[in-house]
Design goal:
mainly alpha
Length: 100
């Protein structure tokens, strides 16, 4: 019987911190789920429900997917929000995409 070679992969793993960044390093997928309220327009809810129904998933799952995707794009500097911040008094607001 042939002698098996030892697995040398672990010794070649990078030892530099942050050298292999994963999505979970940027946006942890573990931890306690916290319910947050978000005000949506009726049309946005209807569209979410239609998409969720077509995919056979819950609205919650679809919204969590969309938010996680958005956060990943923002962290990768693919989304620039600063240009959409309106400085109206009394507080700053974001211009919603597709609304002018």
């Amino acid at each position: 019987m042939a002698k098996q070679k030892a697995d040398l992969n672990p010794i070649f793993k990078s030892t530099e911190p942050g050298s292999q960044t994963t999505t979970d390093d940027i946006i942890p997928a573990t931890g306690r789920t916290v319910s947050v309220g978000v005000g949506l327009k009726e049309g946005e809810v209807a569209m979410l429900d239609a998409m969720a129904s077509a995919l056979g998933v819950s609205r919650n799952a679809l919204m969590r997917y969309g938010l996680r995707y958005f956060l990943m794009q923002y962290q990768a500097n693919e989304i620039k929000l600063a240009k959409d911040v309106e400085t109206e008094d009394p507080k700053k607001r974001l211009k919603m995409p597709g609304l002018g």
